[in-house]
Amino acid sequence: MEEHRLIGVRQVASPNCNARPTDELSLIVLHAISLPPGIFHGDAIERLFTNRLDAREHPFFATIDGLRVSAHLLIRRGGECIQFVPFDRRAWHAGRSCWQGRREVNDFSVGIELEGDHRPFTAAQYHRLSDVLQTMVHSYPELSLSRLVGHEQIAPLRKNDPGPGFDWQYLHRCLEGRRH
Fold it and tell me: EC number(s) on record (predicted)?
């Protein structure tokens, strides 16, 4: 970890972030995204997070035209990790959300997007996520694996990701394997 950035991952700066109100970084939120829905491996997610998505390219893109969102990280289907926002900045990933009575979850969380939808995620994604999570909890003392949630847990009436395709038990087995 160097200057709140992961070493060895591609860096793509997103303008969709701002200063955190405090230095607190105590929650990790997992998301799932595919753009257009159900399509993997293109550059649409990257273009969305950098405000370069052309609404004319696909009918779905017109429904999210003008949306300003980002995440700290994106983990692609093959395991590639891209960082859009340094961890000391507030990425715009959680939207209207609440965790343990606290609103404005973006203020104190890291957002990690997994390229996916309702289908199972890949082993490469779980292994990369496991590596990232171990680095995060080692680098930020307030973070722990017990403070890892899905978007559906902080915005249950609005969101359902990472969804039924995400295998929490498999992730925990990957994490256990990394500790030894």
Answer: 3.5.1.28
